[in-house]
Amino acid sequence: MPTQHLLSGKGSLRAAPLDADVEVLELIARQVEKVPWPVGLSALFVLAMAWNEVPHWALLGWAIAVIGMQAVRWFVLRMLPSSTRPHDQRMQTAVLLSGFNGVVQGSAVLFFYGMTDLQRAVVSILLAGITAGAVGTTNGHPRIFNAFALPVMLGLAVAWALTPHHGSSLLVDGAMSFLCLAFLAVQNGLARDNYRALVESVEMRNEQIRLNEQLRSALEQAEEANAAKTRFLASASHDLRQPLHTLTLFCAALMTHSVDESARRILTHMDAALSALRSQLTALLDMSKLDAGIVSVHARPCDIGPMLRRLCDAKREEAHAKGLQLTCAVEGDMVVHTDPLHLERIVGNLLDNAIKYCDAGQVWLLARREGEQLHLSVKDTGRGIAEKDLGKVFEEFYQVDNPERDRTRGLGLGLSIVQRLGRLLALPVQLESELGVGTTVSLCLPLAEASEVVPLEEPTESAAMPLCHMLVLDDEAGVRVAMKTLLESLGCRVTLAACTDEAMRLASLDPPDVVLADFRLRGEESGIKAIRKLRQQQPDLPAMLISGDTAQDRLLEARQAGLRMLHKPVSVEVLLKAVMDTLEEGVLDAPVEPRDERVASGA
Length: 603
Known about the structure:
Elements: H1 20-31, H2 36-50, H3 56-79, H4 87-106, H5 117-137, H6 142-162, H7 170-255, H8 261-292, E1 300-303, H9 305-321, E2 324-329, E3 335-338, H10 340-356, E4 361-370, E5 373-380, H11 414-424, E6 430-434, E7 438-446, E8 469-473, H12 477-489, E9 493-497, H13 500-509, E10 514-518, H14 527-537, E11 543-547, H15 552-561, E12 565-567, H16 572-585
Parallel strand pairs: 2-4, 8-9, 8-10, 10-11, 11-12
Antiparallel strand pairs: 1-3, 4-5, 5-7, 6-7
C-alpha cells in the first residue's frame, strides 16, 4: 500500500504531505451517498427476475441484507476520513465493509438454480455493472476494489460453471464462466491503472507542495534580507549623518564670516561636496520613508504647467554645461488630479537621469492631452538601455553604466524612488529604450476640471533667522558646538544641553522660545520624552526633532507624536524654514503630518 511522505528541502517550511489512501477514503465517503441508488435498482431487477422461481422469504431476506449493508456503509464510511483512529485501522474497516458488501451482492448467484438462462444473464450483467462501477467509487484501490469484486465475479463464474442448467449446453455455461473471469481480470487491470494515476497525481501535488514551501521559504529569506538591508542602511545612515551634520553646520557658520577670496572658493567647494553627500543621504531617507508607508498623498486638481516649466528652467544650466539642448514642450493649461509635490519629485528625478546619461543631443520634457488623460514623458537621445537591463533599472542601487560607482552619478536610487512614488500615486511608469538611440520614460495622469484648481505654492526666497532663544538638546558634543556656532552667527541666542535633566534645569532658569531635540539620546532617553517633560513646565513650548536615524519605526514614532522632524545633515535653508514654521504653529493639539514626511525634493 503506497503512501507519499515528501519533505521540503533543508531550511524550508514543511507542509503535511498528501496520501493516496487518504484520498481514496475521502472519495468513498463522498460517493457513499450515491451508491445506494444503483444498488437498489439492481436489487429490484434481481427480485423481479427471481420472484416466480425462488421462495419469497429468501428474496426478501437477501433484499433486507442488501439494504442493511448499504445503511451500515453509509453510516460508517462517511465518518471514516475524519476519524481519530489509526490510519491502518481505518483502511481495514473500508476493506472489510467492501468485502461484506461484495459477499452480500454476490450472494444473488444463489438464486441461479431456479432461473432461466436469460434471467441468469440479466443478473450477471447487473452484478458486472456494479463491479465496473466499483472501479470508480474505490478509485481502483487494490485491496478495497478486490474485496468487493472477487466475491461478486468469482461467485458468478462458479455459479455459471456449477449451477444445473436448463437446456443450455455446457459450452455456453463454461463460456459465461470464463467471460466472468476475463471481465474480472480486465476490471482489475483498470483498477490498477486508476489507482496508479491517483498515486502519480498525489506525488505531483506533493512535489508542488514541496516547491511551494521552498518558494515560501525563499520569499521569507528574501524579506529578511531586505529588512536586514534596511536596518543596515538606517544604522549606517545615522553613523554617517552625525559627522556630516557637524561639518555642514561648521561650514555654514564659516560662510557667514568675512574671508578672503581663496578661502571663499575653498568653502564653496566644501559646501558643494557636502551638498552632494546630503543629496545621496536624502535619497536613502526617501527610500526608508516609502518603505515605512508613511509617505502620504494629497491629490487635488492642479495646473502642473508652471511646475514643469520651472523644473526645466532649473535644469537648463546643467544641461547646457554638458552641451545638451533641454526642451520643455508644455503649452496651455495642464490641469490634472494628483499630488503635485510627489509628481515634482518624479519629474525631477527623470530629468536628472536623462541629463546624467545623455552625452550629446537633446532632452525633452513633453506633456500632451490624450483623451481624458495627460501623457507626460521625459525623452533623451542618450546611451539607451540594453533589453537585458530594462527590468533591473528600477532596482535599488542598480546603475547600467557605472561600474566604478562614480558618485557624481548618484546612488542608483532615482528610478527606484520614481517607481515607488508612481505606485503611491497609482501612476504606472512606462520605460522604452533602445541601446545607442535613447530612452523615454512616461506616465499618464487623469485630467481634472480647471475650475477646481488650487494654485500651487511657488518656492520663496529664504528668510532670515528670527531672533529667538533656542534650546538645543543633543548628546553629541560636536553637534552641540556646531549648532551653537551656526545659530549664533545667524543672530540666535542658544542654550546647549546634553541630556533631559540638564535641558529642564536650564529651561527653568531661562525659558527658551523653541526646542530642537535630537531624537535618539543616550540610555533610555529620547527627544520625544524630553519635549514632553519640558512642556510640563512650559506647556506652550514649540519644539521639533532632529535625527540621523532613518529607521522606519523612528519615522512612524515622530509622526504619531505630532512633531516636525529634521534629518541630519540639515541645510541652513531647511533649518531656517523649520524654525519659522515651528514658531508660527506653536504647540499643536493633535498629531500633524510634518512637512518632512513628504518625500523631499531636495536636501
